[in-house]
Write a structure and sequence with these properties.
mainly alpha
């Protein structure tokens, strides 16, 4: 199921196209690469890899939650017909008509006594 949802997410996922941010990221990476020694670079790359893995996992969880929400909404729509304002108004009018009819009957039967 996990692999299926991951491939489904990839089919809907559209990476943001931001050349400015990509360029800034590359410049920052180059600047860090020049200033850090080999051990520090290794540690930084490990940090970046873990951060990317966390983002991927968060993105997949977010996609799954949205998918589940959509499935729940779909099930709700199948179980109950969509809301109809006209049907609701008709039902309300019938209820009022019945209440008024009963009140009129009560008033007529009260006059006869």
């Amino acid at each position: 199921m996990y692999d299926y949802m991951k491939s489904l997410q990839k089919s809907f996922d559209a990476p943001p196209e931001s050349e400015r941010l990509q360029h800034e990221l590359e410049r920052a990476h180059e600047a860090l690469h020049e200033q850090l020694d080999k051990q520090q670079r290794t540690l930084l790359l490990r940090y970046i890899d873990l951060e990317n893995a966390l983002r991927e996992e968060t993105s997949l969880c977010s996609f799954l939650n949205g998918y589940r929400l959509a499935c729940g909404i779909y099930r709700e729509l199948l179980q109950e017909p969509p809301h109809s304002f006209d049907r609701e108004e008709e039902k309300r009018s019938e209820e009022i008509y019945q209440i008024e009819g009963k009140a009129a009957e009560a008033a007529c039967s009260g006059k006869e006594d």
